[in-house]
Each structure stands twice: as C-alpha cells, then as structure tokens.
C-alpha cells in the first residue's frame, strides 16, 4: 500500500476551482516548480528506502491552489510491484485540472518513458463511494505500468489545480508531513504565495524554526525538509489536543470570525420556503400541533432526520454549498449541509432562533489549535436557542426525540456561521438524557444460589447502534441478528445460553427493542464462609493506569475515552428465607477516573435490584489529580458491589434435595427443554442440559442427553464424561466402551489414556493399564507427569505402594515445589497406611504452596485419621468442606468419624457422600476403611 498511500498523501488538500476538464492534461511541469535533486539509481540496494523521493509543492495565487507532486519509489519486492504497478491519480474535474508531467521507469542508466507512443491514463467512472452514501464527483485516472520489474524505480510527476468559488477568493490547503522513522533520499514540502497575500501556516508537530524567504519573482517561499523529526510520544490516554498531527495547514483566512462571515451566506434561509409548498405545509402541521417551541424543534428535527435520507453531495461545487431546501425535500435526500439548511429554514419559520455551526466529528478539542479554515471541519449542524438554552441539533443523526433535545454531540467545539462573524463556541460535555444502551435484566434465583438462573433481558438501544441493528434485522437475516443479540446479552450476563430472541424497532422512540431469555450461570463463590456473587456493572469496567513517568508527560491529563453511555438495571429474585445482604459500595461517586457514575441498590421482599449507569468521554482527570484518582479507583475496585447469601446456605447436595421437593428446578428444566425444542440438531442443546442433570445427580438423564449429543457430534470429552457417569451407575462395560471411544477420537489425550488404564485395573487387568501408561510416559512430552502420576496410583491400588511412591519421588525430585505432586505422594501413603510421618510433611508443605488446598486438606485428614489423631483429622475435613462443601471424600470421612465417636450427623454425611459419589464405599473399602 505504500505507493498508493504516498500518492494519496500528496492530495490532502481542500477543494478549490471552477469547472475544468474531465480528462488529464499532459504538459511539462510549471515554471514555478523547483525540481528535486537528480536521483542516482545505479547503486541502490536493500538498505535504501522504498520511497526515495516525496516532493510536494504548492502555489497560492488569485484564489487558486496548484499542487505539484514528484514521487519516486523503489520496487523492492514482488509485493511492492503488485501494489505500485498501477498508478491512481484522483481529482475533481469540477474544481480543477489533473496535469500529468512525467511517468517513467528508472532502470540503471535507462530512462523508460511510460507515456511514450501516446499512452494515456484511463479515466474511471465517478462515484466510487456510493456504498458510503457519497456523490463526490471525483474521477480517478489510472495507468497499469507496463514492463515494471522488481529492482526498478517508478517516478511519477503530476499537478492538480483547485479553485473553489465558495471560498470567495480565499485559499486553503493541507500537506502531509512525513515524520521519522519514515526514510527518504529526498523529501520536501514547499509553499509559494504572493508577498501581498497574508498567508498563515501552521504545523502540529515539531519543526525547526522556519521563516519564509522571498523568491526573485516576488513570492514568499517556505520549505520544510522531509522526513520531519519523529513526533514526541504521548500516552494513549492523552486527549486529542495533546497528540501530534503530521499535518501542515495553510490559509489566508484572518481568524475564526473571518471564516464565519465568509461562510454565513451559504446558510441564509430567507425565501427558501415557498408559500403553499410542501415544506410550508410541514411547518404548518408542526405549528398546528403545538405552540411549545421545544416540541416544535423536536418535531422539525424528527422530520429532517427520518424523512430525508443521507447522501453526500460533493458534485457541482457541493463541497461547501448546500442544495436548496426545496430540492432536498423533493429528492428526499441530502447531506449534512442540505439537512442543516432545511432544518434552519423550518426552525426559523416556526419562530425559533437558530444558526448553522460547523464542527469536526473526529478532531475533538484539537480543532481549537488549528488554523481558521473550512478544512478544519467536516460536518455542519444547527445551534438553536430556546428559553436561553443552547440546543445542538444534528439533521444527519437518527432517532432524536423530544427528550433528547438537550443532548450535546461530543464534538467539543463549533464555529457559528454569522454575517457579523463569530468565534469558536465550546460545546459542553454532559451525559445524554437517555442512555445509548439501556438494559433491564431479570434473574430467577429462587431455586438456590448454586443453580443456573433463568433470565429475561430487555435492552433498548438508541442512536447509530440502533440503526445498525435495524439494518441487520432487515437485510442480514435471522442468524446474523441472533448473533448480534447474543453478543449484546453476553456483555450483561455470565455465560448466557439464549433460547428466545426478539427484535423490533420502535418509531415513536426511535429505539431498537431487544428481548432475550434463557439460562445464565452466576458465578457464586464461597469466601469467608459465605457465598458471594458480583453485582457491579460500572466500576469493574473502569481502567485507570496512566503512565506519566516521563517529565514531558506530567502535565498531560487523562481522557476517559470516546463517548459511551450504558445503564444496566438488574433484578434478582432470591431464594426464600431471607438473610441475603450486600457488601461493597451501594452508592458511587459522581465521577470516577473521568467516568460519570450513578447507582441505586434496593433489597426488598426477596428481590435485589441494582441500577448502574456509566458514561465515558465527558470528563478528564487533571495531572494533579492522577495520584488521588489512582487510589480512588483501587479503593472502589476493592469495594465492588456483591450479593452475600445467608450464612446457613446449605451445600449443593442439600439444595438439590430442597429444590426437588419444592419443584424449584422445573423453571430451569423448562428453559433447557425449550432450547432443545428450538435447536434439536445442535449437540450443545443436549450437552447443556446434561451438565445440569449431572449437577443435580440425575445421572441417567444426563447419560440420555449425552447419548443424543454424541450422536450429533462425538467428541473425546463427551465420551469421557459419559464414561464417568456409567461408572457411577456401576455399568463398567459401557464405561470402558466410552473410554476407548474417547481414546480412538483423540489418541493423544492423557485423560483418555488414564481413564482406560484405570478401568483396565478395575477389571483385573492392572498390568495392561500400567504398561499403557508406562509407554506414554516414556515418550515424554507435556503430559509425562500425568502419566507417571497415574502409574503411581495404579501401582498403589494393586498394593505396590513402595513402587508407586518411588515413581512420585522421581517426579518430585525433578520438579520440587509442585503442590499437586506432593499431594499425590501424601495420598498414596495415606491410602496405603505407610510412611505416615513423611506423608504428613508432604501434605503440610503442599498446603503451604497451594492457592486452593481443599483436596490437600482432605489428604492430610486421612493421614491424621491413620495416625489416630481424630480431632486433627476432623479439623482438616471441616476446613476442606468449608472450601468445597460437596467434596464427597471429606463428607464420607467426616461421617466415618462422627459414627465412630458417636457425634451426630454421621449418617447424613455418609448419605450425602454416596449421593455425590455412589461408589465411594468401594474406594474406602479398598483402603481398609468402613463406617
């Protein structure tokens, strides 16, 4: 893209000039051009830059801008040959000429004239951007360069003249300043203008102290060598006004007031509405509907936004001159100029004070640093005043209604176009009246905090995103619309499974209305003995880590980013019995890290409601406030809002029993059934429900669903899952068949190998299982430790505890400090009732190393049990169950201890362990332990 990018860079100039021609001219370079130094291509090599010459020269005179470009590019590779092999030269024939001076290939000492023999560039048809609703009148002259080879240099010289009557003799232009590390053999930007012209120029990156000189023919000359100095680095979160802009502006407008006066006549509306015409009828309709000027303004804006489609008109001097309101109304299309003029005419006819203002949609607060010139702006809107309030009305927007009238687009600065002239107006930054995205989330958690929750989400989307969804719904089809809805819901819920979706566009509110329902999986986790789940939809999304360590950055504020505005209201219907609480911040500061925040929280009648709104892009953090803000954000993130379940919340196995008795699982199962009914050919529909059935210990139901999922899409994981379920039901033959099927699908799966080996041992083929594991372990790789660990377990299960421990000794010696290996060795010693003193050391060390030591506490509990230290064993089992309340092994052993000591609850513990792990008695019988 380098060749095309470079040509385009030369052409960054404002429109200018009356009708010229729609064919390129072929002439020598004009006399005012100063040729670039001769180019020696005989010694070029790989170390030389690809872009050898970039010479941009501009001459201003009599309201006309002439732009000359000289570019030489080294064809360094086949890729560059492909990209540069066709020369494209765009120009606007309504405003000037394209003059081709030279296109040649430099090959050693040869100079090959590409235009020899009368070759000419082919002019493409206009309107290459219709898909962007743009009619700009541009033409592009192209020429495939015949004979161009890798190693050649392609040199192109051309000029474009431009003159725009809309500027009334004024001139403006821009030139791209290529900064280092871009490399050139020769680069230059050269400006020429008559001494009598008060031309102003300004660069927005670091340049040496430059002063124009006077040429012999009486012109001022300014020369800037390229590449310019590498721009200073700025942090990514710096406001736009602090970011270097590799651009040179030039204009003879004296100031903003001069520009304002010059453009004001373009938006005069006197006589633009014909009496008795269709626009007059529309104005009369609005006037008859209400006398309230605010409502009138809203109705007029709605008319222009919704009844006039957008189409940019840059043809026939249309870059700055709007088409007449009557033409806009008749054609039912117009660009920002046409829509603004129509809206102005209607508002003024309705007795509302209004004026046109030009803005930049992408330069933000950088506009105030630029020279006063039309090219500093790319958009025009209406500034109306009603009862002393400024209203900023954008006719090209969409969906604005009465309640949105006070919203301020995030353009930062506007220049009013007034006959008497005017200066820049700062546009205030504040949240819109209505959020861009407004979500209502309903969660049904009555079954219990450890179950998935049926949900319903209703989202109202406004603005550009609503229009995009409207187009997707109309054109892209259901599948694409469903994906868009799913993406929206995924930003609101944890792992949602959506089973129903609907979409409609509401004309009255100009909003996209989305409804979705399904199942979500709130991430309740146990901390300090109680289950907690995050509720925050505001603070967790704020990142604030500005880097201002460099001295040059210390005075740069921190931007909160582009404008975004989201409100999320979440209502959770909680399980009965009460006892729920919240922790964290129930209220938020008005602003945090430049983000405007608002929150309300209520907990009433078994319903917890959290209403969060966050708005970015309307505030900055000053350099002096950065340290305090960093601390505030850290503190706020440490106090994220959470719901806390009651202390007496039972573990999952007890919740399952209670939910079954109360039929609280039926709504959840109904959603899964609906999912399957809607997508019976999707394997995930069945595996999703299988997960839930497995979780509530309905293993037969889970097997049935997995069987259907496997029939649709067999995977190794699904076969292994079903194998474990078959084992729990004591169907070892089917368990082995599934394990072997998993291994056949994925021969490299350590889980499948280990599962087959484990089942072989249970079938009395322990040596075969050990041989399989040993073979895989000998092959090495990332799973070697897993295979060796499984070997040790099988050896110990066959009574060869010393051999199993010896294998683990080898592993631990090569990888000391791994908690899982230490736990494995502790467990083998405990189950074999051997080396209990070292087993205790292994477990204790592993507990110190592990982040979540529940399983290690269970292992150490068995060691203490073997040692007869029953109180210590019970303490470890209690601690393990505090972390993982449904750990079958700890429940079983706590039940054993309670039965032997006569403490209550032993039978309940044993029953729970057997529900969770139906064959747990077999395991502990092998260890010599029975209740």
Could you explain the architecture of this structure?
The protein is of the alpha+beta class and 931 residues long. Among the domains are: 2-236 and 244-250, Immunoglobulin-like (Sandwich); 258-426, Roll (C8orf32 fold), CATH 3.10.620; 714-816, Tetratricopeptide repeat domain (Serine Threonine Protein Phosphatase 5, Tetratricopeptide repeat, Alpha Horseshoe), CATH 1.25.40; 818-931, Serine Threonine Protein Phosphatase 5, Tetratricopeptide repeat, CATH 1.25.40. Helices cover 35% and strands 24% of the residues. The chain is built from 27 helices and 38 strands. The strands form nine sheets. Strands 1, 2, 3, 5, 6, 10, 12, 14 and 15 form a nine-stranded mixed sheet that branches. Strands 27-28-26-25-32-36-35-34 form an eight-stranded mixed sheet, sandwiched between helices. β14 and β15 (219-225) form a beta hairpin. α18 (766-778) runs antiparallel to α19 (784-797), α19 runs parallel beside α21 (819-832) and α24 (870-883) runs antiparallel to α25 (888-901). The longest helix has 15 residues, at 293-307.
Which features characterize this protein?
Serine Threonine Protein Phosphatase 5, Tetratricopeptide repeat; disordered N terminus; eight-stranded mixed sheet; C8orf32 fold; Immunoglobulin-like; globular; nine-stranded mixed sheet
């Amino acid at each position: 893209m380098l060749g095309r990018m470079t040509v385009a860079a030369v052409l960054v100039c404002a429109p200018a000039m009356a009708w010229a021609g729609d064919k390129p001219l072929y002439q020598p370079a004009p006399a005012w051009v100063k040729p670039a130094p001769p180019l020696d291509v005989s010694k070029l090599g790989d170390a030389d830059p690809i872009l050898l010459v970039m010479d941009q020269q501009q001459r201003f005179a009599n309201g006309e801008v002439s732009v000359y470009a000289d570019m030489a590019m080294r064809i360094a590779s086949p890729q560059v040959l492909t990209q540069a092999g066709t020369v494209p030269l765009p120009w606007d024939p309504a405003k000037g000429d394209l003059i081709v001076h030279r296109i040649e290939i430099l090959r050693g000492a040869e100079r090959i004239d590409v235009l020899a023999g009368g070759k000419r560039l082919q002019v493409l048809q206009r309107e290459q951007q219709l898909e962007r609703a743009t009619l700009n009148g541009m033409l592009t002259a192209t020429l495939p360069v015949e004979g161009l080879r890798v190693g050649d240099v392609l040199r192109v010289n051309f000029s474009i003249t431009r003159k725009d009557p809309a500027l009334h003799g004024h001139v403006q232009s821009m030139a791209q300043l290529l900064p280092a590390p871009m490399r050139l053999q020769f680069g230059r930007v050269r400006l020429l203008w008559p001494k009598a012209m008060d031309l102003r120029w300004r660069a927005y990156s670091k340049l040496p102290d430059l002063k124009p000189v006077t040429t012999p023919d009486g012109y001022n000359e300014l020369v800037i060598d390229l590449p310019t100095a590498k721009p200073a680095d700025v942090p990514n979160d710096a406001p736009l006004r602090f970011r270097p802009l590799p651009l040179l502006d030039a204009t003879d407008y004296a100031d903003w007031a001069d520009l304002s006066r010059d453009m004001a006549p373009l938006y005069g509306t006197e006589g633009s509405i014909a009496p008795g015409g269709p626009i007059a009828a529309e104005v009369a309709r609005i006037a008859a509907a209400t006398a309230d000027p605010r409502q009138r303004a809203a109705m007029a804006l709605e008319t222009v936004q919704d009844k006039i489609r957008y189409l940019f008109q840059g043809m026939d001097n249309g870059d700055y001159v709007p088409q007449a309101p009557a033409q806009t109304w008749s054609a039912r299309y117009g660009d920002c100029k046409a829509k603004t003029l129509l809206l102005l005419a209607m508002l003024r006819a309705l007795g509302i004070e209004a004026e046109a203002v030009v803005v930049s949609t992408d330069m933000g607060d950088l506009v105030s640093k630029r020279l006063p010139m039309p090219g500093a702006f790319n958009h025009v809107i209406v500034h109306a005043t009603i009862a002393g309030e400024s209203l900023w009305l954008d006719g090209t927007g969409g969906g604005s209604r009465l309640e949105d009238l006070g919203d301020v687009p995030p353009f930062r600065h506007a220049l009013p176009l007034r006959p008497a002239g005017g200066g820049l107006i700062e546009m205030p930054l504040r949240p819109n009246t209505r959020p861009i995205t407004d979500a209502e989330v309903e969660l049904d958690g009555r079954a219990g905090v450890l179950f998935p929750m049926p949900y319903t989400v209703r989202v109202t989307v406004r603005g550009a995103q609503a229009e995009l969804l409207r187009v997707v719904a109309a054109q892209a089809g259901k599948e694409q619309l469903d994906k868009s809805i799913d993406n929206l819901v995924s930003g609101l819920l944890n792992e949602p499974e959506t089973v129903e979706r609907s979409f409609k566009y509401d004309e009255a509110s100009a909003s996209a209305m989305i409804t979705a329902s399904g199942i979500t999986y709130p991430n309740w986790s146990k901390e300090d003995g109680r289950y907690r789940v995050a509720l925050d939809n505001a603070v967790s999304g704020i990142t604030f880590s500005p880097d201002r360590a460099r001295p040059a950055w210390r005075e740069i504020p921190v931007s909160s980013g582009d404008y975004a505005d989201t409100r999320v209201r979440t209502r959770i219907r909680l399980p009965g019995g009460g006892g729920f609480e919240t922790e964290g911040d129930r209220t938020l500061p008005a602003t945090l890290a430049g983000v405007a925040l608002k929150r309300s929280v209520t907990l009433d009648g078994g319903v917890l409601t959290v209403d969060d709104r966050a708005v970015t892009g309307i505030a900055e953090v000053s350099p002096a406030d950065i340290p305090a803000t960093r601390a505030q954000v850290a503190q706020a993130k440490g106090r994220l809002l959470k719901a806390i379940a009651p202390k007496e919340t039972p573990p999952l196995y007890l919740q399952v029993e209670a939910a079954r008795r109360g039929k609280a699982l039926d709504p959840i199962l109904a959603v899964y059934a609906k999912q399957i009914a809607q997508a019976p050919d999707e394997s995930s529909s069945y595996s999703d429900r299988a997960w839930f059935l497995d979780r509530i210990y309905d293993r037969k139901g889970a097997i049935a669903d997995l069987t259907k999922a496997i029939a649709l899409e067999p995977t190794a994981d699904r076969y292994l899952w079903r194998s474990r379920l078959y084992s729990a039901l004591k169907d070892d033959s089917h368990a082995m068949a599934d394990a072997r099927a998993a291994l056949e699908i994925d021969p490299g799966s350590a889980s499948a190998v280990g599962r087959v080996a484990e089942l072989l041992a249970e079938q009395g083929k322990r040596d075969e299982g050990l041989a399989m594991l040993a073979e895989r372990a000998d092959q090495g790789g990332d799973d070697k430790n897993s295979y060796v660990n499984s070997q040790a377990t099988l050896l110990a299960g066959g009574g060869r505890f010393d051999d199993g421990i010896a294998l683990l000794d080898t592993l631990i010696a090569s990888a000391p400090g791994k908690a899982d290996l230490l736990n494995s060795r502790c467990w083998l010693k405990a189950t074999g009732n051997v080396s209990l003193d070292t087993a205790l050391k292994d477990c204790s060390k592993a507990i110190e190393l592990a982040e979540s030591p529940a399983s290690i506490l269970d292992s150490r509990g068995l060691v203490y049990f073997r040692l007869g230290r029953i109180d210590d064993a019970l303490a470890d089992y209690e601690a393990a169950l505090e972390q993982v309340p449904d750990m079958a092994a700890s429940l079983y052993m706590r039940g054993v201890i309670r039965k032997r000591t006569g403490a209550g609850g032993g039978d309940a513990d044993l029953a729970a362990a057997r529900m969770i792990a139906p064959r747990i008695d077999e395991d502990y019988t092998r260890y010599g332990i029975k209740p």
